[in-house]
Specification:
single chain; alpha/beta; seven-stranded mixed beta sheet; four-stranded antiparallel beta sheet; 13 helices; 19 strands; globular; binds zinc ion
């Protein structure tokens, strides 16, 4: 086993003790700060006191898959190739970015595995499983734990003494942590990644009974990992904000409708938050792509930019450069909305009635702040850090990153 492994321009030290990074999906810093203030999470408090606790930033757009991939590759979307869950193919059809063939960079875990380090990934939602498994990383999901074999077991779920909860259950995330701990013991895992789901955070703000229940159980499981000798890093893929108007209704700008009103008829709006799990956000987030021919582009930019709640309309080139996105997988325009606004296509295609409660979502700059909690005390760079730095900070690295990320 070598003592350092290169991945995407950084040489990561191989783990000297069992090391786990957990992506607490949709964990706005406010959830942790509120829990710490009320003494709800003593083991997180212990990590904050004796380890490291800072606010970091997510990648933009602040969606789940781009950020999970940035966490495991240590690099921004321009390097790993996934700016969202969908992009518009050359034939004009939307392509779901869930196939590992779309990845343009190896994960740190894949590089560690190739160097002989036992690695494991566990995800709550199955949509991430094949992406995290790329490069030979053993990976299971809570969603399919009753079917997936691993570690000599016919079903991953056999490692845990309770059946897997449903993907919309409050404790689907906790089951991922339970699976991670049980399977890691069987596989003698040295580097573990566990990705949770943001079902609770989409449903409830900090301080609500459901959120408290989620955090108390998360804290117990963090204690289980710490007591078993794991070095632990907790980070989030994005924050979360209420996206409702003063009357409680979803605060949506329907861009296809608005563009038609402005006389732009050949535009195609892509919502990169769209995935199979729409019950908690109805495919409404605070960032989207607009594909529009050069003739209508200025008019589209002006029409969208004048809408209340729209903060930025970037050209493809601006977005690729400033947000570090792959230019061929975003739109001619990239639109970012404010803290309490989401972007949709047309009122007719979004099933708002599918929402379980008041709309809470993410995707823009206002959900970019994420907590970073490490069991180890490390020096955080003066300019701050992003969630893509969590393995650099927890494992240690030998070379400075090759660019600003
Ligand atoms: Zn997420």
């Amino acid at each position: 086993m070598s003592s350092a492994v290169e991945a995407n321009g950084t040489r990561y030290l191989t783990p000297s003790a069992r090391t786990a990074v957990v992506c607490v999906d949709g964990c706005d810093p406010a959830y942790i700060e509120d829990a710490l203030r009320r003494g709800l999470t003593p083991r997180l408090a212990e990590m904050a006191a004796s380890g490291t606790h800072v606010t970091a930033r997510s990648q933009l757009p602040s969606f789940t898959n781009p950020n999970n991939l940035s966490i495991v590759t240590g690099a921004p979307p321009v390097v790993h190739g996934l700016p969202g869950n969908h992009y518009l193919g050359e034939d004009g059809r939307e392509v779901q970015l869930d196939d590992p063939a779309f990845l343009r960079a190896p994960s740190i875990h894949a590089r560690m595995a190739a160097a002989g380090v036992p690695v494991l990934a566990v995800t709550s939602k199955d949509k991430l499983r094949r992406l995290l498994a790329a490069g030979g990383v053993p990976c299971v999901s809570v969603e399919h734990a009753a079917q997936l074999p691993i570690a000599g077991l016919a079903r991953a779920a056999d490692a845990v003494d309770r059946p897997p909860p449903g993907i919309y259950d409050w404790d689907a995330s906790h089951y991922a942590l339970e699976l991670g701990l049980a399977l890691a013991a069987r596989l003698d895992t040295a580097l573990l990644y566990v990705s949770l789901t943001d079902c609770v955070q989409h449903a409830e703000p900090p301080g609500s009974p459901l959120s408290d229940r989620f955090l108390v159980r998360l804290d117990e499981l963090v204690g289980d990992y710490l007591d078993a000798g794991w070095r632990l890093g907790l980070v989030a893929d994005h924050g979360m904000n209420r996206k409702t108007a003063s009357d409680g209704a979803p605060n949506v700008r329907y861009l296809t409708d608005e563009l038609q009103r402005a006389g732009v008829r050949d535009a195609h709006v892509v919502l990169p938050i769209t995935d199979p799990y729409v019950a908690h956000h109805a495919a409404l987030g605070s960032a989207c792509w607009v594909h529009v021919g050069s003739d209508g582009r200025d008019r589209a930019r002006e029409a969208i930019g004048s809408l209340p709640g729209v903060e930025e309309v970037l050209t493809r080139e601006q977005a690729a450069r400033h947000l570090e996105l792959p230019a061929d997988r975003i739109g001619d325009l990239v639109v970012l909305a404010d803290a309490h606004t989401v972007l949709g296509r047309s009122a007719a295609v979004h099933d708002i009635s599918s929402l379980h409660g008041p709309l809470r979502s993410h995707g823009g700059r206002h959900e970019q702040a994420v907590p970073l909690l490490l069991s180890e005390r490390v020096a955080v760079p003066a300019g701050g850090c992003s969630n893509a730095d969590v393995h650099r900070l927890l494992l240690g690295c030998r070379a400075a990153p090759s660019s600003s990320w």
